[in-house]
Amino acid sequence: AEPDAQATWEYFVGDGVDGKRPGWYPYAPEASEEVESIYAQHEANERDSRTASRVIESGYFSYSVDLENMTQTNTRTRKVRQIRRVRGGLVVGGGDGSGLSETRLPVK
Question: Does the pTM of the predicted model rise above 0.85?
């Protein structure tokens, strides 16, 4: 599978870190592209567990991204957050723990 240039990735904040209100926040563009590439490889390998988890860099931090559980784990602090894949206003992966959801995002 090829990475989808229209897909973006988001993470959920529910603990008020950095003064953020609870909600979904977009990955930095470079990190989103990297996760999408990993996702495409995982899909091409028929979701084999060997390709489900990888480490990415985003700014100062490194995260272990788990595509089976749709989570990211900060490699230093061990903080785990939910992640989701978004395309065209639809959540097309994650966000509900299944990794397979498809729900329309609310219009802001």
Answer: no
Contact 67, 39 (CB under 8 A): yes
CA–CA separation, 104 vs 102, rounded Å? 7
- Which stretches within 1-108 are classed as H helix? 29-44
Q: Check residue 9 and give left, alpha or beta (phi > 0: left; psi -120 to 50: alpha).
A: beta
Within 10 angstroms of residue 50's Cβ, the number of other Cβ atoms is 7
In the chain, the amino acid numbered 99 is G
Helices (H) and strands (E) in the chain, counts: 1, 8
Q: Which two tokens stand for residue 5?
A: 């240039």
pLDDT in 10s for each residue of the chain, 108 residues = 789 999 999 999 999 888 999 999 999 999 999 999 999 999 999 988 888 999 998 878 999 999 999 999 999 999 999 999 999 889 987 765 344 344 444 444
